[in-house]
Amino acid sequence: MTGETMAKLLEMIDIDKSFFGVRILDKVNFDLGAGEVHALLGANGAGKSTLVKILSGAYTLDAGRMLVDGRGVDMSRHSPESALAMGVATIYQNFHLIPHLTVAENVCLADFSTGGKRWVNWKTMRRRALDALSAIGLDIDPGRVVRDLRVSQQQMLEIAIALSQNARIIIMDEPTAAISQRESEKLFGLVRAIRARGVGVIYISHRLEEIRQITDRVTVLRDGRNVGTLPVDDNLSFAAVVELIAGREVKMGRRPRATTLGSEFARVEGLRVPGYGDPVAFSVRAGEILGITGLVGAGKSEFARALFGADRPLSGSVRVEGTLVDVSNPSSAIAGGLGYLPEDRDTSGLCMGLSLKDNISLTSLAKSKSAALSVRRDVQLSGRFRKDLAIKSVDVNQQVRYLSGGNKQKVIFAKWLAANCRFLILDEPTIGIDVGAREDIYRLIEDFVGTGRAVALISSDFDEVLSLSDRLLVMSRGRITADLDPGKTDKPEIMSYCLGVSDQSIRHAAV
Amino acid sequence: MSAERMENGGGGVLKTFVWFWNKAGILVVFLLVCAILAVMTGGLFLRPENILNIVRQVSIHGVVAVGMTMVILFGLIDLSVGSIIAFSGILAAALQVKWMKGQNELWMFAVAVFVALAAGAAVGFFNGFVSTKAKIHPFIITLGTMSIFRGVTLLIGNARPITGMTPLFRRIGADEIKWDWLPFVIPYPVIIFLVCVAIAHFVLRKTSFGRSIYAIGGNPEAAYLSGIMVDRVKILTYTILGVLSSVSGLILTSRLNSGQMTAGQGYEMDIITGVVIGGTSMLGGEGSVLGTLLGVLLIGVIQNGMNLMGVQPYWQTIVKGGIIILAVLMDRLKRAFQTD
Fold first, then answer.
1. Considering its fold, how many domains does chain A have in total?
2. Residue-level pLDDT at A117
3. Is residue B73 part of a domain?
4. Chain B contact for A511, CB < 8 A?
5. Which of A107, A124, A409, B47 could connect to A129 by a Cys-Cys bridge, CB 3.0–4.6 Å?
6. A193-220 average pLDDT score
7. Could you read off the pLDDT of A106-130 as tens digits, one per residue?
8. Each residue of A155-179: pLDDT tens digit?
9. Is residue A101 part of a domain?
């Protein structure tokens, strides 16, 4: 399929992109032939989405060239509109569809915006929709409301719409994440059909089995660089792909820490998380940092929220220091000694308009038995934490919205220290935090467990969990797929468990 | 409108103005309006009996505005306050005139006040409970109770006002404190209003409950994840607003010496305007009862001034509508400059 004689459908050459001084893409190359399905792989933050967003016109690039049909594209004028005109379409999970309108209306939506037609002709619309659907052999009634379709049908509808608008390059980002095995098979059938029509497909997925099933080539990105492009054939070794994705180099050494692990500190049994079927169980020892890792969508955050009672778990029990903790809501979970740093600290962790002091005393606010507050005590308490945690602010009365990411995180940390939390659940505690403040956060975590308490450290950063945790759980699709010793594992092994590669031999090959 | 754009070029004056408005705007505007009215009415505005009239009228709105401040601090709203005023008023009137006729006056007074307050609490509790537990915006729930309790008022009163309160009950709205050493008198409603403001100010600043209101208004998710019982705090606040609406209903009924079918109709408009103009953000999280005190005073003064100058009632409604839009715009401007 990838004939060298004719011009490639798409070529992206030496693409550079930085955000806020951080290099996201570094001289990345990618090409796609007509009638080719090209898989784009990489861990979280490897640069996959950035690359396809440059292609679809959502982001501009800093340097590099792009050719469609061998002709250069003027990247200074590249926009979502010009990308569409060039035939680039992205299939999100029903992102482009309007759920309350019918299939026919969604197919003809672009006509509404042109302003050329004043009147809506339902009959024509229906016929056009039928044409678009039957062109790829889809059997959906154009009169149905999109909301009532299955997710896979919505995706296929999106593809039909894209093709009816003459799309030639279709980007599919994790199309099978939310659909069943059987529906996936149908979707693959459709992908093969459009491939036969000469359309090129860029296929992003974390599921390695699918790669072998429907793609022709795979390109792996790591830390914004090309690390390999392989043809997909019988010789393709998953172990090799996993190693390309994860890499072997270790960026941070294991942090030295006088670990004296005590007896069992907390135990979670049969915790069933809303949206995921399988119960989760584990235990933590006193003084232990328990790392939990996995890819985006593995269910780590959902699990953390259920453990803390933020989303009521369907069943299960949580014990801290032998005492059963009621995790039906955060209030009682906190009373039982739990604490939780949410992933999105700005939207869930802090009251931006309130002061440092008021944010730190939030937990004690909920707990205090007496109605009247002592402002002086709060000032003293928050002043002490501000000093101990080295929070950079004007004073304790400054609104937290003006603090940097690292200092905001420290305020949330202080909140839990003030609440006398015993078992702290940290969800991506260093995401978006600069290196210096990151070091401070690590030290806070170590000091916390140093007093005989325990931490569950949830992070998709393998380096972070490898360097910090005493034990490492890997989650994939809502399940714990591995319980590893961070001192004796490496990134390819973790990645293979993240990807849920079922074949034992691959795991051994990867280690 | 981005803060950046306004800060660059041309925004300097506007920014200074917004900064100034934040610091002392409402107080200065209030004094300015008073001065202008004093001049334009040829001193009529400053006559003691006129001022007494203003503060009496403002107190009836103000008591409710205190509770409304708390609800708006959540970023929520209650439209049913006017109907609660009428409903509790008609209950108190019906008890005295119809249902408990001829009984001991003190006993009647106690029962009337208690039943009215309990009724207000019940409606407020209903508003809070249904909107939080069923997760329906209070705008809809209170729109419903607004209609329901206006209807219940009509039912109880048989669509006719109930007049003839007991002398003791009438003192709530009509009597006043007269001390020889004071150059002026203080009507009871004013005292009730100021006591409400003082208590609410203390509660909002110095109690866990009060601080929880700010926290929830600032970020309900963060407050919930910090263990604050968000629903409970909201329900309690709506209940308090219900009780305060009843207090207002009692004052109004006492003052008019009559339980009126249309009592409190349209009050929610003036009350919400007063709260917002007093600096409480409709988006929640920011504001104070002291701001509300000035806000309702400003509305009362403007209304009174327009009356004195013989402005047609139609124009008055137009002006009031303009003021609330202006107040919300000021809030938006304030926030635009706050973004980091």
1. 2
2. 63
3. yes
4. no
5. A107
6. 90
7. 888 876 665 556 677 888 889 989 9
8. 889 889 888 888 999 999 888 877 7
9. yes
A47 lies in the same domain as A103: yes
pLDDT attached to residue A487: 87
Query: What residues in chain B have per-residue pLDDT under 50?
Result: 1-10, 339-340
C-alpha span between A470 and A465 (Å, rounded): 9
Q: Is there a domain that residue A21 lies in? A: no
- Number of structural domains in chain B: 1
The pLDDT-based confidence of A449 (bands split at 50, 70, 90) is: very high
Do A310 and B225 lie within an 8 Å CB cutoff?
Answer: yes
CA distance A332 to chain B (A): 7
Rounded CA separation B145/A231 (Å): 68
Question: A132 with A205, same domain?
Answer: yes
The pTM for the full model equals 0.81
Using an 8 Å CB-CB cutoff, list chain B residues near A354: 214-215, 218, 285
- For residue B154, what is the DSSP state? H
What is the pLDDT, as a whole number, of residue A501? Answer: 66
Q: Which of A312, A325, A351, A361 to mutate to test the interface with B (most CBs of B within 10 A)?
A: A351
Which tokens go with B116?
């009215």
Helix (H, G, I), strand (E, B) or coil at A107: helix
Give me the domain span that covers residue B239. 48-329
Q: Quick check: A153 pLDDT over 60?
A: yes
- Structure tokens of A132? 């678009």
Contact B227 A351 (CB under 8 A): no
Domain enclosing residue A148, as ranges: 27-236
Is B190 inside a domain boundary? yes
Residue A484: phi and psi, rounded to 5, are: -115, 160
* B237–chain A nearest CA distance, Å: 15
Question: Out of A335, A362, A368, whose CB is closest to B226?
Answer: A362
Q: Residue B339 domain-assigned?
A: no
Residue B79: Cβ within 10 Å count? 20
Residue A463 forms part of a structural domain? yes
In CATH, what number is assigned to the domain containing residue B189? 1.10.3470
Here the CATH number for the domain that contains residue A481 is 3.40.50.300
- Closest CA relative to residue A434, chosen from A459, A410, A404: A404
Residue A17 belongs to a domain? no
Domain assignment present for B2:
no
E strand or H helix at A479: strand A479-484
Closest by Cβ to A367, choosing from B207, B227, B286: B227
Same domain, A312 and A377: yes
Number of helices (H), then strands (E), belonging to chain A: the values are 19, 20
> What is the average pLDDT value for chain A, to the nearest integer?
87
